[in-house]
Amino acid sequence: MSPIIEIDHLSKRYAAGTEALRDVTLNIEEGEILALLGPNGAGKTTLISIICGLVVPTDGTVRVGGHDIRTDWRAARRLIGLVPQEIALEPFEKVERSVAFTRGLYGLPPDPAWLERVLRSLALWDKRDSITKELSGGMKRRVLIAKALAHRPRVLFLDEPTAGVDVALRREMWEVVRGLRAEGVTVILTTHYLEEAEEMADRVGVISRGRLMLVRPTAELMGEFGRKQMVVELDDPLTSLPEEWLDRGLTLSPDGRRLTYDYDHRAERTGIGRLLSDIAARGIGVRDVATEQSRLEDVFLSLIGNDTGAEERAG
């Protein structure tokens, strides 16, 4: 099966000389959730804008459902729903009419049954007769998603979908996105919430300075770049680390009651067994031992840091 989106050597340079995208190549499979991570100005929104037909690329091609976004843009655009970062709604329009109006923009006939299904799936059916300015910020974002789904797109772009909403509502939005994927909708989201990408995405793409640095399955990315940390809680505090432990990657907490050991879980020898044996040999009482996987945030910062260093060295 062909990917739903095929991006081939895509670049965008603006007249002032800014290179927003550099030779980006990426295939996005139907029915997956792809998270695009990157700092402000990395090129995430430019990439989405090109795919959605809002920005003209300098070089390269993009096909959506087999349709070229420049030579067959009507067919390509009809497959796409876009939820922008900014909340822009008609303040005095009722929710249901606002969503129906968006469907009409695609030249499609009314479909009350579909609109009801969309509104119910987003917990908006009880708000269908409310004017949008009366809604909370989270509800307004749901209306934006409903408008993006009004014409039954196969691909949905979410640009910072949970920006500015509280944690509880953010998790509700995650459930909405999972529900869309379960119905076969391909979801591409940009986010600054690394927890969001780690929780939801099938794959993660990292963009920095207009370059797509990598795309990996989320679990694989964590396995490849993530490290683990072991924390040993002690019965009695230590005043300092033994001298022979100083070069073993150990950190002693300020109160002396906790040893932290960073290690590569992929290494043939992690050093955990030796450390625990040495602790026992010294008669140090252990209250608890726990390990923790590095979070995606650590992986992301490591990658961005490596990229910045490479740029500086190249310069």
From TrEMBL:
UniProt cross-references to SMART domains, sorted A to Z: AAA
Tree of life domain: Bacteria
Claim: ATP-binding is one of the keywords in the record: yes
SUPFAM superfamilies: P-loop containing nucleoside triphosphate hydrolases
Domain ABC transporter: 5-234
Pfam families: ABC_tran (PF00005)
Keywords: ATP-binding, Nucleotide-binding, Transport
Tagged with keyword ATP-binding: yes
Molecular-function GO terms, alphabetical: ATP binding; ATP hydrolysis activity
UniProt xrefs under PROSITE patterns: ABC_TRANSPORTER_1, ABC_TRANSPORTER_2
Protein name: ABC transporter ATP-binding protein
